[in-house]
Amino acid sequence: MAAPPQTVLPSRPGRRLLRRAALWVLLLLCCLAVAALAWRWTENAATEKLRLAAAQRLDGYAVSLENLLSKYDFLPGTLELNKDVIALLQQPDDETLRAEVNAYLEQVNHLSKSTTIYIVNLQGVTQAASNWREPDSFVGDNVAFRPYVRDALRRTPGGFYGVGTTRGEPGYFFAHGIYHNGRMLGVATVKVNIEKLESGWVQGNDKVLLTDAHGVVFLSSEPEWKYRALSPLSPAVLQELEVSRQYFSHALLPLGIRELRKLDNGAAIVATPAPAARLRMLAQTRSLAPRKWQFVYLSDLAPVEASARNAFIFTWLSEALLLMLVLYARQRRRLGRQRQRARLDLQRAYDDLESMVAERTASLQQMTHNLSEENVVRRQAEQKLRQAQSELVQAGKMAVLGQMSAGITHELNQPLTALRTMSDNARVLIERGRVDEAKDNLATISQLVARMGALTGQLRQFARKSDASVRPVAVAGAITAALFLVERRVEQERVNFRMSMQSPDVFALCDTNRLEQVLVNLFTNALDAMADSDPRQLTVSVSRSFQKAMIAVSDTGPGIPEAIRRHLFEPFFTTKPQGQGLGLGLAISEQIIREFGGRLLAEATTTGGARFIIELPIAEQETA
Ligand code: ADP
């Protein structure tokens, strides 16, 4: 059976990452929304400000237009006050009168700064005009089709903006009936040029239009927009305009301003047609009620859009800054927390270290204390060892002396026997009067006694306990003294003794007594070894090699086999029969020489005997 499909969930760090990414996206969207709000709010506020400013301007323009027009409102009505005007209308064929009225109208036109003033009869035919001198004078023209004339003839004084049918010049026409004794005789008309107002309307990129009741632009800060309709005109209106010839021959095509969005207060956002500089503009209207006209003010929206854009960017940047500040603060807080943790860890480590140091110091102090105690014990042990060694050396010496005792006794007994015999002989010789012979005997006795004294002196000297202090010792002297103690054995055992002094005045750094002890040991061993040898040759040679004094004691005995040589310097190693050797001689000798910084070596001679070499530090002559 196939396993059911499993949903693979992201791991925990993955989920956290996803959550964080989602949070960031949300935050970004929020920031965008706030920035968009700021955009919209600024746009609205700036548009409202623009609208208010435009409304104010429109009010201003309307007032100035009204002021201008109201200045002429009364003028047509006042013309009936002139008797000639009335007379001309009553006698239309009186050319003199016409000339007078023409001159009058010309003068009034000049004074009132209007464009043209003319008088028409009830049939709409111009009887007199201020422009009577001009080739295209209105005099004689029938203007009955003009709505303002029609209105005036119907006793409704009216105003009308239109383009002149003669010259095509635009203007505002005021018309008023001329009455005499309550009877209408004709109509007085004043044409005023209001185009000069346009020049003051242009403000930066803004545009101002003035439209009539049908929405036809007749005044505009934008020349191309003039005589264009805000919205397409109906055929009826077109027909009516055609009849009244209000805009002469202008086609009155639609302007093409599109409304994009309606705002409050009658304002709207519109798209203006090319070639205008701006496409999107704020349109605002103000009606001039009595004349059914409408002012349209188009404000440039560029500053509004720029403000909104700036607000968006500013908000966006502020949010980014705020976000960065928050992140920075968070990072700082995190760093602070990490630092605090690190400080605590450090403090803990420091405390641990301090307690460890204290523990170690205590244990070190304890160790030092123990060491100093051990040191004392060691020193005491060393002292004991030295003492034991010294006693051992002394014991070794005594053992040598013990071994020599038989010979020494014999050495002393012989002269003693000779002394008794010779003293007896001396007494007999004296009794027999042989005094000279007795004298000789006594001299020999004296020599024997002296010799015995020397021997005992040497024995005493050898047996004394030495302090083993190091000083320069004449090697030759030490050899002579040691030889003295074994001399009798050498003679008795017929040993040939030879001394080879390559360096007779060598001094070694050691103790005389100890060196003598070592030499006596080596001599005794050599004599023991040569007991069964023939010939018996004991050779002592002294030399110096570098900073060493070398004393070699060679014999012609059987030599030392390798098996024995390995144990030579071991204590209690002996090959001698019980009672003859202790096996301490060489061990003690080696130790004595080693203590003086030297070496004791054993080797075989070329003749098969044994050779022991003492190496000692040399003492310089000056020191000696
Ligand atoms: P002991 O003389 O009491 O035996 P030593 O320490 O003086 O003790 O000598 C140890 C041994 O070394 C001797 O027993 C002997 O075997 C050997 N020996 C010492 N000197 C010589 C020598 N000159 N020739 C041969 N053997 C020797």
UniProtKB/TrEMBL annotation:
Its main location: membrane. GO terms for molecular function: ATP binding; phosphorelay sensor kinase activity. It comes from the Bacteria. It is a multi-pass membrane protein. Transmembrane segments: none annotated. Keywords: ATP-binding, Cell inner membrane, Cell membrane, Coiled coil, Kinase, Membrane, Nucleotide-binding, Phosphoprotein, Transferase, Transmembrane, Transmembrane helix, Two-component regulatory system. One of its GO terms (cellular component) is plasma membrane. PROSITE patterns: HIS_KIN. Its EC number is 2.7.13.3. Residues 364-398 form a coiled coil. This is C4-dicarboxylate transport sensor protein DctB. It comes from Duganella vulcania.
